[in-house]
Design a protein that fits this description.
This protein is α/β, with parallel strands linked by helices and 257 residues long. The protein has two domains: 15-79 and 164-257, 3-Layer(aba) Sandwich (Rossmann fold), CATH 3.40.50; 92-162, no CATH class. The protein contains nine helices and eleven strands. The strands form three sheets. The chain has a six-stranded mixed β-sheet with strand order 7-8-9-5-10-11, sandwiched between helices. Helix 5 links the parallel strand 8 (165-169) and strand 9 (197-201).
């Protein structure tokens, strides 16, 4: 008896949410960095890092569409994008409760003609509060929160819009190491639970290497860019030239899934 071979399909690769190919960022047509090629897919956590003033925020703003690229290709396939700004961009004395802040994340999609909108809106807000573990804080004033709690509120605000891609600009600045690890552990949890693509600017190399799946290293002074799986970037020549082989060897392994 002859048995026909069974065709086993190749594992599918999720489509990219953002695809930058030979993207050159800068101001007024003047390049700041070498070309950047990056593909961000669902369930990937990309750490964007480099020395102070290296061009991290410029890359982020270009990807967000705030700044036009100098040249290259940029395609955003994500149907929705959530942006979490630095906390110092939020008025520290804003007279709002946590629930008010999170509601603001869905107000832009409000519509009179959607009969299901009220229900969907409440569900999105409740999911965002639950996924960031701040349901118990809903009635708390913004001014009473710790830095870590404020960061979770801003993340919930972005998540209330049900984004496919979440972008965060230095979410752990002015935090102690424990709070910083807690925020990155939450990002790791969110990208798995919600199948999110995540891009986050950060500075703590140990925390980034522990929780990120991929990395984008930029260094304006050395005219260097490196992108890919975090282990490859941390072990690459651009990183080693800036931080040294010892630092590369001591950083922990990246997430594999």
């Amino acid at each position: 008896m002859k048995i026909a071979p069974i065709d086993i399909p190749e594992p599918s690769v999720p489509p990219s949410l953002v695809h930058c190919r030979d993207l050159v960022v800068g101001y007024a047509g003047t390049p700041m960095l070498p070309p950047v090629t990056v593909q961000v897919r669902p369930r990937e956590l990309w750490a964007v890092f480099g020395p102070n003033g290296s061009g991290k925020s410029t890359v982020l703003r270009t990807i967000l569409g705030i700044l036009p690229p100098v040249s290259g290709d940029y395609i955003c396939h994500a149907q929705s994008l959530g942006y979490v700004p630095q906390r110092n961009e939020i008025d520290p004395a804003i007279p709002a409760r946590v629930i008010d802040m999170v509601r603001a994340g869905v107000e832009r999609n409000w519509s009179f003609i959607s009969p299901m909108w009220t229900w969907r809106r409440r569900e999105a807000i409740d999911d965002a509060l639950g996924d960031t573990h701040i349901r118990q804080l809903t009635k708390e004033p913004w001014t009473h929160l710790s830095e870590g709690q404020k960061q979770r509120v801003l993340m919930a605000q972005a998540l209330a819009g049900n984004p496919q891609l979440l972008v965060l600009d230095e979410p752990t600045s002015a935090m102690d190491v424990h709070a910083e690890r807690s925020i990155f552990a939450l990002l790791d949890e969110l990208r798995r639970r919600r199948s999110l693509g995540v891009m986050v600017v950060g500075h703590n190399l140990g925390v980034l290497a522990r929780f990120a799946t991929h990395a984008l290293f930029v260094d304006k002074d050395q005219a260097a860019v490196a992108a890919g799986p975090v282990r490859e970037v941390v072990g690459g020549s651009a990183f080693v030239e800036r931080f040294g082989r010892g630092v590369a060897d001591t950083l922990g392994p990246a997430n594999a899934t």
